[in-house]
Amino acid sequence: MLKIDRRLILNFDWGLLAAAVLVIACGLMTVLSATHVPGRLMSGLFTRQLIWATMGMIGLLAAISFDYHWLERYAYFIYAAAVLLLIMTAVLGASGGGARRWIALGPVTIQASEFAKLALVLALARHLHRHVGEHPLALRSVGVSVLLFAPAALLILKQPDLGTAVALGIMVAGLLLLAGLRLRLVVLLAAVLIPAAPLVWHHLKPYQQRRVMTFIDPNADPLGAGYHIIQSKIAIGSGMLDGKGFLHGTQNRLNFLPEQHTDFIFSVFAEEWGFLGGATLVALYLLLMLRCLSVAMRARDTFGMLLAFGITVMIFGQVLVNIGMATGSLPVVGITLPFFSYGGSSLLASMIAIGLLLNISMRRFTFASSGLS
Amino acid sequence: MVPLSQREVPGVLRQRVMVAIGVGVLCFTLLLARLWTLQILHGEEMRILSENNRIRLHRVQATRGTVLDRFGRVLVDSRPSFDGVLVPEDAKDIPTAVENLAQLLGQSAADMHGLLTQMSSRPPFEGITIKRDLSWEEMVALETHQLDLPGVSLQMTSRRSYPLEERLAHILGYVGEASQQDLLLDPRNRLGDLIGKVGLEKRLERYLRGVDGGQQVEVDAVGRKLRVLREVEEAPGDTVTITIDRDLQEAAWQAMGDHDGSVVALDPNTGEILALVNRPSYDPNVFARGIRRGEWRALVTDKRHPLNNRAIQGQYPPGSTFKIIVATAALEEGVVNPFTRIHCPGGVQFGNHYFRCWRKEGHGSVNLHQALVQSCDVFFYQVAQRLGIDTIARYARLYGLGAPTGIDLEHEKPGTIPDTAWKRRRFNQPWYAGETLSVGIGQGYVTATPLQMANVISMAAVGKRFRPHYVKDIATPDRTIVRTGTPELVETLKVRDTTLMQVREGLRDVVNAPNGTGKQARLDGILAAGKTGTSQVVKMGEKRVKSSQLPWQERDHAWFVTYAPVDAPEIAVVTLVEHAEGGGGAVAAPIARQVMQTYFDLKKAREGAKYAQN
Hints:
The complex is a heterodimer.
Chain A: H1 6-10, H2 14-34, H3 44-64, H4 69-92, E1 94-96, E2 99-105, E3 108-111, H5 112-128, H6 139-158, H7 162-179, H8 183-203, H9 206-216, H10 225-237, H11 250-253, H12 265-298, H13 302-326, H14 344-362
Antiparallel strand pairs in A: 1-2, 2-3
Chain B: H1 11-41, H2 43-50, E1 55-60, E2 67-68, E3 74-86, H3 88-91, H4 94-105, H5 109-118, E4 128-131, H6 136-144, E5 152-161, H7 169-172, E6 174-177, H8 180-185, E7 194-198, H9 199-203, H10 205-208, E8 213-219, E9 225-232, E10 239-242, H11 246-256, E11 261-266, E12 273-279, H12 284-288, H13 293-301, H14 310-313, H15 323-333, E13 342-344, E14 347-350, E15 353-356, E16 364-366, H16 368-374, H17 377-387, H18 389-398, H19 420-427, H20 433-440, H21 450-462, E17 464-466, E18 471-475, E19 481-484, E20 489-492, H22 497-512, E21 529-535, E22 557-564, E23 571-577, H23 584-613
Parallel strand pairs in B: 2-10
Antiparallel strand pairs in B: 1-8, 2-3, 3-4, 3-5, 6-7, 8-9, 10-18, 11-12, 11-23, 13-16, 14-15, 17-20, 18-19, 21-22, 22-23
């Protein structure tokens, strides 16, 4: 077992790893700027993020050290454990800003939902890979997928963390579309859901209606989300071509940007580095996405493909929604920018995800070291 | 050893991944285009907007709710006022700006600099209120010198006004600027906000404050508003109707004259407070406009303590008004019956101490009725001795003494009802029998607040005790009632009917018998009942001297507790005069009478008006 197959090293996707490391480095730099306190070299938050990145590297290496087919066997257990962690968060979690999203494990706080995302991809890949074929999915399989999705999604919505729940939804939709949905089913769902919407709307309380309205149109809340969007757009736009320079973003420095080191970190980066920096970062993410999708494309078996694709949709769905929100192209949902935003659990989970992709990629030509196939 | 089926990937899946690649590339291209638009096409204007934070939020503090009296007359109102506001980031040259401002507003530049350093921890670009409630001349000065005053603007806010001024200060309380601590307690508070600090203003803050609105505005390089981009209307606070009768409150204030002390009038059937006056008092309008340091110091250091709400915070020995409780206990416990007579020679020897009656010639042989009417001390010394301290304490607590009444105001005091356990706890000493005698006439360790005594007389009047309250109802601006002040029964006096009847007869004759101590409280056409009290501030000397002969701070307190009409009580009044120049009958009873008489006159006038309307 310790004998390392030469092909594993030959097939290692160095480009994927390099792109990921590059994005993470940019992210660390921006966290430093977003949490910068004049007169001090490094903020406490930056140091913490650095430690998490190191742990993420260990997690990444761990995630490539074994044959990913093992995960198929344990997928449901892992998912059950993740849901349990979410329940624990709901019961005894620490609340920050009115939401219960974190759970304390010794000196660190863990955001269980970040790991639940990965676990759900595993569970869905495990379930779907036996049922996909040249024909669309059976209705039963779609039903089971939704049932798998429901507990995690509901627990996360309850926290409340709309952003992560939306990311989960995008991922499930992506995987189901990949596996193949019957056109009839899509039409049927639309026929049921669209007439139901006004009915549900009627039963919402006024403040709930307002919240939904703000979600759809941030200008409906000009003193809250609407203001944040404007400030974020000003921050990005005022970066112009070459930016205001590292640590010199005025919008950021004066604390006008809400959640500047998490949800709106892209604005900090684009303000300081301008279009040149912003475009480079977007291109870097694009490159990373293409590498990830090529892993899915070339995966040796269906489980690996579904796993790789699910992870990719999860990560880049978030990237698109986050940057779309910061640039004022999409509604404001509290969603982090993977590899970039401050947040240990998010970084660790994302790096483990990259490890899994590398794992799938490097084992595309090997067969199980023993047993049958 | 991996026994899992490794299925070949169906070809159609690879095709779908190709589609996904296409969709992904498209999305990222759109993002790039969006960045181009923002940073290259609109970069210039965005850069300008980002300098000096040109897009700002101006908060509009909601208009505070109005407070009305029980008949809908205004007790607290809000009126528009203009404040001068400085945003230091916009001022560029702060020393010059401060210099100019100080000159225009006639304030010292040093004070203003002090204000600036005080506010140094505020968020960037948040304005500092330089001066509240500017006069017309000051506003004109600021407007005409706009060009010399970058960063200075006028801000419209609402100012609290209290038309009754000092006459109702202690229930209403006042508003003041939110402190650092207030900011932590409620995230809606901002520096400079006027929020309820004391009294009703504080207790009902969540109803009165309303919901703040705001404007998203674009400003120019020196912070002046160019245009309003978007706006959220403020929602004014709720209207609070309280149980106070404005006319009765005025009458009580007038009746007190220049005396220090307290008058409380309430409805014994509900606990609704009809009037609550403390003297001396303060003017809440001074706080609303921003109290100056000197004014505050003067209020705090004033020896007469105008900020004190004596009605709930002043703890005074109740004196002979306490005899209501001792009489109830004596009859109910059977230590005397209505025919038991005790001889009063003007005092009684107990141990090595001689306890005097207030009337040094003595009352001769008296029964309980006569002892109440003439307030004979010797009778109650004897009765107290027979009852014992713990029984007296039990009845006192039943009447609501020794514990806060639970009125919705802060820092209410509980008073003291001593018993053997209390003495051990407090002094680690046994109770001495001689001390029971002093308690029997409401002296010694016994203390009570005027509001507690209002509870006592209410309970004597109707046999029940309600939690004193002042909220009648609270209504939103669209007139939906969100809270009503319902009577809350706290205690029922579980004694024989005859006991209460005999006590009430005594109280009736205190006012109405020719030799009653409270005959100055007699009303026109309405039968009232009551009890006088004169409580010593300093320990009795060898012989009792007239209060008026003592130095002011050693003079007795004068009490009068009363209710009317006797057969269907609808109002109870308590009067306490600190350091009076005479006893309860001479000083406190006339004040109570004036309040009572006003109440019934007003009632008659209202009924007459109603009759005339019909």
